[in-house]
Structures are given as C-alpha cells and as structure tokens.
Write a structure and sequence with these properties.
The protein is built from three helices and four strands; from the N terminus they run H-H-H-E-E-E-E. It is of the alpha+beta class. A hairpin with a 5-residue loop joins strand 3 and strand 4.
C-alpha cells in the first residue's frame, strides 16, 4: 500500500498543472467570497484573448483595454460586468463587448448587448 501511495504521489507531482487544466483553468474559483477586481480583470483579459484567438472577435479587440468593471445585478443575483469598447470594430452594433463573471470570478457569458 505504501508503494502505491508513493507511486501515485510521484505521478501527480510529475504531471504539469497545465496538462490538467483547460485554457481558462487559472480562472476557475470555488466558494462564495467575491474576487478582487484585479482578479476579475485578469480573467476578462484572458477570456477576451481567447475569443480573439478563436476568431470570435476581430483582431482589433486584442489591444482594447477595459472601459469599466462593476458588480451589477444580474438575472441570478450579483455579477461582475467588464465592458470593452472598440472604436475600430467593423460592425458598429458589435463595438461593445460585455463579459460577465460570478462574484468569485468564474466566467458566465460574453455578448455585445450587455444583457
């Protein structure tokens, strides 16, 4: 039994965390304590970069910095809302990007309407 436990410990510590996590793995939180604003902004930047990389946002979004971040009343209670505005967006109706996160910092949704 000791050998099995030792072997398991070696395997678990030898596997890099990145191999176990999804691309947004560093922005997955447990509990109910609200995340600091800086943490939410870091996760929003990662999510925005992923959307650009996937081709879901134009490349011009990569350089856009957030305009605002706030805890707002969502459909299921408080949510973090991070807003970006892109004056270079080719589609004027998609010139605003809204990212929503749970209070602890987990991603909920992204859209161009803010709803």
């Amino acid at each position: 039994m000791k050998h099995l436990a030792l072997a398991l410990l070696i395997v678990v510590t030898a596997v890099p965390d990145a191999a176990l996590a999804d691309p947004g793995g560093s922005c997955h939180f447990h509990g109910t304590k609200p995340a600091p604003e800086a943490t939410v902004l870091k996760c929003a930047e990662q999510r925005k970069a992923g959307l650009v990389k996937e081709g879901k946002l134009e490349k011009t979004w990569a350089a856009i910095r957030h305009e605002s971040v706030a805890l707002v009343d969502g459909k299921k209670g408080k949510e973090w809302q991070v807003v970006y505005r892109n004056p270079s967006a080719s589609d004027r109706q998609r010139a605003s990007l809204y990212l929503f996160f749970t209070p602890p910092g987990n991603f909920i949704a992204a859209n161009h309407t803010g709803q």
